[in-house]
Amino acid sequence: MNIAIIGGGISGLTLAWYLQQAGVAYDLFEASSRPGGNLHSWPTPEGYLLETGPNSLQLSVELEELLAELGLTDQIEDTAAVSQHRFVLRGGRYRQLPGSPPALLSNGFFSVRAKWHLLRELRRPAGPPDVNETVAHFFRRRFGPEIVDYAVNPFTAGIYAGDPEKLLLHKTFPQLVALEQQYGSVLRGLAKTGKGALRRRIVSLKQGVQTITDTLAAKLSHYHPSTAVTGVARRPDGTYQLQLAPATNSAAYTHLALALPAYGAAPLLAPLFPQAARALAAVHYPPMSVVFSAYDRAAVAHALNGFGALHPKVEQPYAAGSIWTSAIYPGRVPKGQVLFTTFVGGAQYEEAAHQPEDAQKAAVHAELSRFYGIVGEPRWQGRYVWPRSIPQFDTAIVGAHVAAKTLEADNIVAVANWRAGVSVPDCVRYARQVANALAAGQ
C-alpha cells in the first residue's frame, strides 16, 4: 500500500501522521509553502497575534491526544474565564445569551412566548425523519420562531458562515436528529444524556493554532510543500500517478486521499470520474473577510466581559459578529489596547464580503463604534480575505458525500472538512479514523 495525500491542511497532515505511526507508506503534497490551510496564525509587527481562521478550538479527546503525541500539551492556552459568556445583538444592544436550557427559562433574554414554546417542546412528539429538513425548520418546529431568530440564526452565521434556512439538519447537527427520534423531546434528550450540561474546554496554542499544523509538518518524513498536484492519471494496473508542479517523477499509488476543498478536488477528478467531480464542484463556499480592529481600552465603553457577540440577521447588521480577542487572550495585544476580530460575509452576508478593503474597514469601525460606545479612530486595522470560506452543508453537500462514498470503491478517500465536518476536532477525528481503516487493510 502506498498512499498519495493531496492537501496539507489539518486533515491531510493528521492523516499522514497516523499513517506514519502505523508504518504505512505515503507522500503528502501541499501546493503552498505554508502548511495548515485554514489554520493560519498571523503575528503582526504592531504586536498583535491574529487568527484568520479558527480563533479557538474545542478540546476533544482526539485533539488532546494528538497534541500530547506532538509534545504540545504545555503549549495549550485556555481562554480567559469570561469566555463562557456569549452575547447576541437584540434591540440594538448586546445582551448575554443564556448558556444552558434551564437558563433559557430564568434569563430575561427571551420573551414569555418564547419560553412557553420551550416548555411545550418537552411534550411535543417527535416528527418523522426528514432528510430535507433544514436547521431553521427544525428549531422553528420544536422551539418557535424567536429561538431561530435570536439564537440559531446568529450561531450558524458566526460558527458556520451559514444560513439556517439552507443548512440541512441531518448533515449539520445529526445528534439533534438522534435525540428527537430517541427521546421525543430534544431538551429531555439533552438532560438524560448530559450533552447539554457540559461544554468542552475551549483552548488555543500559546503561539496560535497554526502551531499544530507547523509541528505536524515538521514531524512528517514524506511531506512535500510547494508541490502542486495538477493532474491524476490511472495506470493499467489500477494504481494512480500524479502530475506535479514543479515537474517531478511520481510514484505509483494504490490509494489517493483527497484533503482538499471540494472545489480543489473536482478538477483533479474530472477526467477519470466526471460525475463525482460535478458533485464536488457544486459545494458552496461563501466568501468571508476577517477584519481586525484595535482601540485604546479607554476609548471603548463596553465591558467586553465575554467571548464575543453575534448578530442575528433580523437586526439588519453589517457583520456577522465579532470575537473579543483581547478579552479571551489578553496577551495577544499590546498593553492598554483591545482587539475585535469581525467576520464580514458568509452565506447570509455575501454582498458585504465583495466590498473593497477600505469600505469594509470603515463599515466595521462604524458598526463597532455604534454598538460598543467607541470614541475616535482605531489604533490599527487589518484584513484577511477568504474568497471561499466554509463549505455549506446544504442540499449540494448530499451529492458530494454520495460521490465520496462511491469513490472509495476506486481506493479514493476524502478527508477534508467538507467530508468530515467543519470543526478542527471533527477533522482530526475523521482523519485518524480513516488512517486506522487504511492501516488495517494494508
TrEMBL record:
Instruction: Name any one Pfam family assigned in the record.
Output: Amino_oxidase
Q: Amine oxidase domain spans which residues? A: 10-438
Catalytic activity annotated for this protein? coproporphyrinogen III + 3 O2 = coproporphyrin III + 3 H2O2
What InterPro entries does the record tag this protein with? Amino_oxidase, FAD/NAD-bd_sf, Protoporphyrinogen_oxidase, Zeta_carotene_desat/Oxidored
Cite the annotated pathway.
Porphyrin-containing compound metabolism; protoheme biosynthesis
Q: Where is the signal peptide?
A: none
Name of this chain's protein: Coproporphyrinogen III oxidase
Which organism does this record belong to? Hymenobacter montanus
Q: Which gene encodes it?
A: hemG
